[in-house]
Amino acid sequence: MRSRGRWRVAGFAVGAILVVAAVVAVLSNRSLATAALDSAKGASAGTIALLVGGAIVNLVASAAGLRALMLRHGQVGAMEMQAVIASATLLNYAPLRPGLASRAAYHHVVNGIPVMATALTVVQSMALALCGIAWLVASAWLMRAGGGFGGPQVGFAFVALAPAIGVAGIMAAPAGSWRRTIAVAWLWRCVDMSAWVVRYHAAFAITGISLSLADSAVAAAGAGAANLVPLVGNGLGVREWLVGIMGSSMRLWTMDAGLAADIVNRAGDLIVCVPLGLAALPFVAARLRHATRAQRVPDAAHAPSESPPPIELPQQP
Q1: Do the Cβ atoms of 179 and 7 come closer than 8 Å?
Q2: What is residue 110's three-state secondary structure?
Q3: Rounded to whole angstroms, how far apart are CA atoms 14 and 4?
Q4: N or C, where is the chain less crowded by C-beta within 10 Å?
């Protein structure tokens, strides 16, 4: 456990260093930094709303998808899950990434769900995330190089195919079945990945770069891959550089432009997760205290009590 904690602290340190390095790299390119700053000052309210609104949709979709998987193991309220995910997302910015551990402990104490069941849902969610990344990459490729397959319309049709499969699965599978659970979780994953596409389209627009839907999907796929890296919370630092490297290697945008756009996207993350996480933490802590107290009361009631010594009556002569 101590070794794992050291690795998590090291991961946080590396992520923080990568973020600082990204900021330095952008600022060192004075022409880009000046242009990005001027563009950000003139960004429309609608573009900023897309950035912030996309981050909110990410939180909502992530919580709803995880709840769909968790309901096979116990009852978790919809708003309760939103609060748990909001607080866990904020906590994952801390050095030891306590978000997942605290969430597993919460579900175990409050909802009676075994820790291993929570871990299983995390693995299942990661598998769906990999499928979502593959969906975005394939969609982007078809939209960009779909001339031999009937044009970009094939790519747009492929974009609509994934959520359509989720809707069809929900309608065809019986309630409570494993297939329906996966279909619901997959549909929410599609919403989550689509929100990332919108966010990158807005983030690049704020820095003065207009991206196509296909290029925004590439950036979103990179963000999804970075968020799966286990040693850093919320893809801290890794996401910024991965988006920059992907775009520059594919000649979609320059390294510095990718870094600048993802720094803007990171700001959108913080604008959403900090206030929502701080608002959710007292609710989650109160529920945890109440459940812990409720468990202690029955234990105390069933504890063996010390019986008073028997009263000896005087013997009659």
Answers
A1: no
A2: helix
A3: 15
A4: C
CA distance 197 to 78: 25
End-to-end CA distance of the chain: 72
Query: CB atoms < 10 A from the CB of 299, how many?
Result: 8
| DSSP conformation class of 253 | S
Calpha distance 65→256 (Å, rounded): 34
Count the Cβ atoms, other than its own, within 10 Å of residue 40.
17
Q: Give Cβ neighbours of residue 159 (< 8 Å, ≥ 6 apart).
A: 139, 143
Of 225, 221, 130, 59, the closest CA to residue 213 belongs to 221
Q: What mean pLDDT, rounded, does the chain reach?
A: 83
In this structure, is the dihedral angle defined by the CA atoms of residues 245, 248, 253 and 259, taken in order, positive or negative? positive
Cα 304-307-310 angle, rounded to 5 deg: 155
pLDDT digits (tens, 9 = 90+) for 88-104: 888 888 765 666 788 88
Six-digit token pair at 52?
A: 């912030």
Confidence of residue 7 (pLDDT cuts 50, 70, 90): low
CA distance 129 to 225: 8
> What predicted TM-score, i.e. pTM, was given to this entire model?
0.85
Instruction: Give rounded-to-5 percent helix, strand, coil for the chain.
Output: 80, 0, 20
Distance CA 223, CA 238 (A): 9
Distance CA 193, CA 190 (A): 5
Dihedrals φ, ψ of 43, to 5°? -65, 140
